[in-house]
Amino acid sequence: MESAHFLEQRDKNTCVTEMYSEEELLPLSSLQHLVFCERQWALIHLEQQWAENELTAEGRNLHERADEGADEWRDGVRICRGVRLRSLRLGLVGRADVVEFRPTAEGPMQPYPVEYKRGHPKPDRCDEVQLCAQALCLEEMLQRPVPAGAIFYGQPRRRADVTVDAQLRRETESLALRLHELHATGETPRVPYQKKCDRCSLYSICLPKSTAEKSVKRYLARAVAAAIAGKSE
User: Fold this and answer.
1) What residues make up the domain containing 20?
2) Would you say residue 215 has pLDDT above 90?
């Protein structure tokens, strides 16, 4: 049986339009951080800050279990684990927890990425964006359409099917571009405090309430200074 990483060799023989060099590729998994909060993304990927809590530990353990084990065949479906991915068009590199290759009437097997997540489906689209990015990488590497995938959630212990439609593709491509824009600036953005900040493992590092208060004070100081300057003219 071939290794789960056969895609990497296949990718070397695939002709793609190169937009980013190998050195410019950014972690595909960081898209999820970007969707959650641009400041969180910058703290992790620019400042190399990290703090683990119960939620992140559970998520890490779930990913490790999904990646373990050999490739296998099950009911005619080839299951590959820890599949390496990249897209020179989007400038992303990473891996998929699982990629299933399902039989089709046309002959070539259909790639179907499966991402493993702890907990329940989230209110934002961070999980769907990450899965879509995996699908776009597979399309570029294999030159085959990947119209769907799934997210396995640890709490309900069942899959949620995801359609990789035009809207999700546009959103994912836009976020990949934003990822590179932020990386190019090298700056950690300031963001206002939100309720979701309370469940972030980087709360004590980010200090979102303090950051927001300082931003407001600077804004008011600039506004007052501008008003005084306007009266003196």
Assistant:
1) 6-189
2) no
